[in-house]
Amino acid sequence: MDGGWPGGGADKVRDRQNAVVETVLSRRALGRATLARQLLIDRAELGVVETVEHVVGLQAQVPAVPYLALWNRIAGFRPEDLAAAMLDRSVVRMTLMRGTIHTVSAADAYGIRPWVQPMLERVFNNTPWGKALRGIEIAPIMAAAAELTADQPLTRADLGPLLALRFPELDGNDLAWAFSYLVPVVQPTPRGVWGQTGRSALTPLAAWLPHEHSKQAAEDIVSRFLAAFGPASIADISSWSGVSRLREIVDGMDLCRYRNEDGADLYDVPDGLLPDPDTLVPTRFAPEYDNALLAYDDRSRVIDDAEHEMLVGGPGGHVGTVLVDARRGHSPAATSSRA
Questions:
Q1: C-alpha to C-alpha distance for 273 and 165, rounded to whole angstroms
Q2: How many CA atoms lie within 13 A of 66 on its CB side?
Q3: Percent of the chain's residues with pLDDT above 70
Q4: Which residues pair with 94 in a beta bridge?
Q5: How far are the Cα atoms of 128, 205, 322 from residue 106, in angstroms, in the given order?
Q6: Rounded alpha-carbon distances, angstroms, from residue 260 to 24, 31, 204, 209, 257
Q7: Of 88-92, 239-243, 260-264, 304-308, which range is least confident?
Q8: CA 324, CA 169: separation in Å to the nearest integer?
């Protein structure tokens, strides 16, 4: 396999005839695979859009976090680079994986949203707003919300009263929340632009990016995830995406198969990068919600069970953590000093 290594951190599982069946990857090996594929060992000579697509989006509830995430990953990155991409609409902020705000390319906004839409609808239906709207014919209301926000983006707080005027028998707040889940919408600039402030307004994706891109097949999205995060389990893919029932999709793909130290099945693209487990890696500060920390159901490749201190900031939130030797809460001697 391209990017493989001859030993250290990988054991062969054999059957009764002593034939090699699978390779067992250690947590150390998996941690280095994650950092390498997330561009956290060596910063890449890539542009903003290429990098955002390579990592399949950046979680972005906190508008400044994608800037630090890209500084960690792109050689010579400047905040103005992402700001320019936000302003020219080559990247956008929208709800995607796990029902959370992500910074993604324009192509991925159109390509990935249909895949996660059933998950978003399921999540919404289980919220208090969704339960209040059960049995309501929602399509014409969502069309009205899209019309109201197409030319003038509105926050949910502003949109709710306007919808209540048109549909007085319903709660406007419930309808505004429905719009943010059920219709592909973006948070337009200046929200997310470095050095500027902007409210969390909403406008339809089709109004903000009238040039549509193709929907991506589920198999293509899973392959992209594995290229950026693998080797990974089906539970990891589901944890990252929020999408369930992935077994049939994965089983139908041409993937390499491994196991982790606990015996769980892991899958990977055939050319997935697997650095030598003894590769020296830099110490990295990972901002809150960083891909490398949140993408897995089993985070043991980057987070130790041992007690460690989190960097706490803001009301009730963590501002990030330091990865030493590709792990949080671990401090071995074999670590590079470069940042």
A1: 56
A2: 31
A3: 85
A4: 102, 186
A5: 31, 9, 31
A6: 5, 11, 42, 42, 10
A7: 304-308
A8: 56
Q: What backbone phi and psi angles, to 5 degrees, belong to 74?
A: -115, 130
Q: Beta strand 10-14 with 101-105: parallel, antiparallel or unpaired?
A: unpaired
Range 134-137, long-range pairs (CB < 8 A, 24+ positions): 136/170
Q: What is the mean pLDDT of the chain?
A: 87
Q: Where are the strands (E) in the chain, listed by range?
A: 10-14, 20-25, 58-59, 91-95, 101-105, 185-186, 203-204, 256-260, 265-268, 284-287, 311-312, 318-323
Asked whether residue 337 carries a pLDDT value surpassing 70, the answer given is no
* Nearest of 79, 108, 81 to residue 93 by alpha carbon: 108
Q: Other C-beta atoms within 10 Å of 313: how many?
A: 11
The DSSP code for 279 is -
> How many residues appear in the chain?
339
Number of continuous H segments (helices) and E segments (strands) in the chain: 14, 12
Per-residue pLDDT averaged across 10-33, rounded? Answer: 68
Separation of alpha carbons 256 and 211, rounded Å? 36
pLDDT in tens, 201-216: 999 999 999 988 999 9
The separation between the first and the last C-alpha atoms of the chain, rounded to the nearest angstrom, is 29
Q: The pTM is what?
A: 0.86
Six token digits for residue 78: 């400047």
CA 254 to CA 11: how far, in whole Å?
22
Q: Is-contact 264 300, C-beta < 8 A? A: no
Q: What is the pLDDT of residues 247-285, one digit of tens each?
A: 999 999 999 999 999 999 999 999 999 999 998 888 888
What would the DSSP string read from start to end of 283-318? -EEEETT-HHHHS-SS-TTTB-SS----EE-STT-E
pLDDT tens digit string along 108-163?
999 999 999 999 999 999 999 999 999 999 999 999 999 999 999 999 999 999 99
